[in-house]
Amino acid sequence: MKSLSSLPKERFTDIIHMQIPFRKVHESPKSFKLKNNAIECFGTFWRSGKSLVTIQGELKGEAEFVCDRCGEIFTAPVDESFTIEAVDRPVKVEESLDMVECSDGIVDFEYICKSEIASIQSEYHLCPNCKDKEDFEMEI
Ligand SMILES: [Zn+2]
Description:
Distance between the termini: 42 Å
Bound molecules: zinc ion
Mean pLDDT: 86
Low-confidence stretches: none
């Protein structure tokens, strides 16, 4: 399960389906779309089990990253797709990372988009300067 602590602070606006009650999600896929200044998150979701909603989405835009080598904050394009399952029961720690718990019976797309961005940000990233250096070192 994902931690809430490092989610981006910026709120999403301009929304189709920001939050939807679990019980209102049916088997036929519906679309969702959220965006803030820098990034757009959109895709489809449908009921895939009694306590399960599958969400397939894409993130497009720009996000801020921290360079893993020099600590510099830089902006880079994001173009990622993701699949996540929302469950309306508590998620155990040993369960999949791609599961999100909806304990209050609400599928929260803002939370899901933010946690997807946070998980992209938590991967290994080098700023353009360090990336250039690394390419240069590899050539030698
Ligand atoms: Zn760097």
